[in-house]
Amino acid sequence: MNYLDSHCHINGEEFIDDLDAVLNNMLNNHVTKAMLVCVNLDDYKRSVKIKKDGIDFKIAIGVYPEDTNISEDIFKEYYEKMKEVDAIGEIGLDYHWYPETKEKQKELFISQIKIANQLNKPIIVHSREAMGDCFEILKEHHCRGVLHCYSGSSEMAKELSKMGYYISLGGPLTWKNAKEPIEVVKNVPIDKLLIETDSPYLTPVPNRGKRNEPSNVIYVAKKMAEILNIEEETLLKQINLNYDNLFNR
Ligand code: NI
């Protein structure tokens, strides 16, 4: 039984000191695939060096919604890396932290979707308190991709899955107050579901309060299998297939 983490940031500074231990925890828990998501160029430099026998790492890079004031030169650097990686992301809209740059965020998001389509690569979408606009953009500018750590309604998740998008759930699915994420799992076809940690953030129960790491994805998978009332092994077979369908084409 093999797990995967479709979204993590173990390429970040939080993991510089004990990355080996984190990678060993992954292996010990059979987490054998992981997407390293870069939100800046330093993350990318570290990502290409992350190697471990028995774990298949992929890399994603994109200009984060925070960075709407990025210079043309730096954008070009990102673009060069985009040609090398497995996915474009995380890109999208964040109206929680950066409500003052909504219009610029939309422009930046759309321009990167166009690049992804041109390079024939999937996108990894970040959307926080912006699902309405995000939905409209994904509807209009069609592409392959996943909504990471999905936090919108189950109805919208269903619509997005019909449009071909994957829906990824993380730690919040296991939290005591989880209601809508549980409905999302029930409403999205199993062949459009993914699991993730978003390490170092959003740690699942029972490790809440600690830094998150990819080995914790096992708790997300267990919870998802429980909600769907299927064997964990059945779920994981499908999740592995979904991940490969999205990122290995
Ligand atoms: Ni992330």
Reconstruct the topology from this structure.
Elements lengths: L2 E6 L10 H10 L2 E8 L2 H7 L8 E6 L10 H11 L4 E8 L7 H18 L3 E6 L2 H10 L4 E3 L6 H9 L3 E4 L10 H8 L5 E3 L21 H12 L3 H16 L2
The protein binds nickel (II) ion.
The site of nickel (II) ion has 5 residues, from loops.
Task: Kindly describe this structure.
The chain is of the alpha/beta class and about 250 residues long. The protein has one domain: TIM Barrel (Alpha-Beta Barrel), CATH 3.20.20.140. Helices cover about 40% and strands about 20% of the residues. The chain is built from nine helices and eight strands. It has an eight-stranded parallel β-sheet with strand order 1-2-3-4-5-6-7-8, with helices on both faces. Helix 6 (about 155-160) runs parallel beside helix 7 (about 180-185) and helix 8 (about 215-230) crosses helix 9. The longest helix is centred in the middle third of the chain and has 18 residues, at about 100-120. It is globular, with a radius of gyration of 17 Å. The protein starts with a strand and ends with a helix. The mean pLDDT is about 95. Bound molecules: nickel (II) ion (NI). Nickel (II) ion (NI) binds near residues 9, 90 and 198.
Offer a concise description of the structure:
Helices cover 41% and strands 18% of the residues. It has helices at 19-28, 41-47, 72-82, 102-119, 131-140, 154-162, 180-187, 217-228, 232-247, and strands at residues 3-8, 31-38, 56-61, 87-94, 123-128, 145-147, 166-169, 193-195. The model has no long low-confidence stretch (mean pLDDT 97).
